[in-house]
Amino acid sequence: MQATLPPALRALRLPLRLRLWDGQQLELGPDPRVTLDIKDPALLALLASPRLDALAGAYIDGGLDLQGPLPDVIALADQLSAAMGVADSTAPEARVAHDRQTDAEAIAYHYDLSNAFYALWLDPEMVYSCAYFPTGTEDLATAQRAKLDHLCRKLRLQPGERLLDVGCGWGGLARFAAREYGVQVTGITLSRQQLALARERVDAEGLADRVSLELMDYRDLPGDGRFDKVVSVGMFEHVGHANLGLYFRHLFDAVQPGGLVLNHGITSRYPDGRPVGRGAGEFIGRYVFPHGELPHLSTAIAQMSEQGLDVVDVESLRLHYARTLEFWSGNLEARLAEAARLVDEKTLRIWRLYLAGCAYGFRHNWINLHQILAVRPLADGSHRLPWSRADLYV
After folding, report:
1. Eight-class DSSP state of 80
2. Using an 8 Å Cβ cutoff, are 369 and 317 in contact?
3. Above 90 in pLDDT, residue 282?
4. Are 190 and 103 in contact (CB under 8 A)?
């Protein structure tokens, strides 16, 4: 029995082949680059209104399979979704109450997956955040070292200073700052697996006298201004809109007057924080980052300012993150057999889509990433920053 496809779908002329449960093959355009294996007849109706989260969910649950280069898969899914009239959401994301238990569970879900799995596709330092490509030609390891140096230069770190690293991950930045800039680093995380490996690496490099890493919620940070500088990389996405003010207040209280605070994080395209990508945001919220909320740049700056932090510099690294994710996705695709021995099939499917999909999303301006540098002003409103940025690029 011949399958019935929506007329609009047949008219698309996309380089896509549909392979149905009964063996039928339908080509929607010449020279198909991607094949969609539809195993469940009920999923054929999905193609009439192919939201990206619904397509992803069907793949994750095994109702369909994907054949072809993953970047082509993601691009064709986007073209299919757009051509069939699926619209972006116009409603703000539902807000989540971010208490300590909720945040700890969300962090464990994402970051305590498997250190060995992350090591398959990250750089040797296991820096799980946007790299920095000064020329665009660097390999991943070089770009990640450049990012760590870029952060330290922006913070104008000096030997002997005390640096707080909020959300320290596997400790790559903490070790780099201690080793290359001679600072004393305190790092905090909610991920037990990250912390265990980070401490191992600190000890292996002989940095235990300069780097202290703790399992701690940002709400438990000391508020006595004991740190000269504060950095937070890839952390505030987990804080939640309702807690942004509280979060930046804790960073303000942790740094001494005249000290710098550098926040590096993913930001929303829309000022109201609504998801984009015709269901892509919902996919990430459901499968990858539960309870994650992306504030717009204007919201982040407003909350920092409200808490007394004077914003002095903002830099977008959107295309840098697209390139980073393309490296990560390519690394994972090259080591799928090893990855399948470390995580279950469903998890691997989630991460294949997540890395390739986010690379596409950053490349196409669905989301952004900003480094925001701020200072806690001295009592008279002044600060000690140089008059120009020239020192960053010497």
Report:
1. H
2. yes
3. no
4. yes
HSE at residue 320, side-chain half, CA atoms within 13 A, is 23
- Could you tell me which residues are beta bridge partners of residue 227? 255
Domain coordinates of the chain in residue numbers? 7-83, 100-393
CA distance 87 to 144: 36
* Selection from 220, 231, 241 nearest residue 93 by Cα: 241
What confidence tens digit (pLDDT) does each residue in 194-217 have? 999 999 999 999 999 999 999 999
- 3-class state of residue 314 by DSSP: strand
Residue 358 designated active-site: yes
Rounded CA-CA distance 194/156 in Å is 27
Query: What's the confidence (pLDDT) of residue 4?
Result: 66
User: What does the pLDDT look like over 228-277, one tens digit per residue?
Assistant: 999 999 999 999 999 999 999 999 999 999 999 999 999 999 998 877 77
Q: Which of 130, 152, 168, 358 is catalytic?
A: 358
198, 170 Cβ separation under 8 angstroms: yes
Question: Which pair of tokens denotes residue 155?
Answer: 């913070």
The two structure tokens encoding residue 137: 């030609």
The amino acid that residue 157 corresponds to is L
Q: Which CATH architecture has domain 100-393?
A: 3-Layer(aba) Sandwich (3.40)
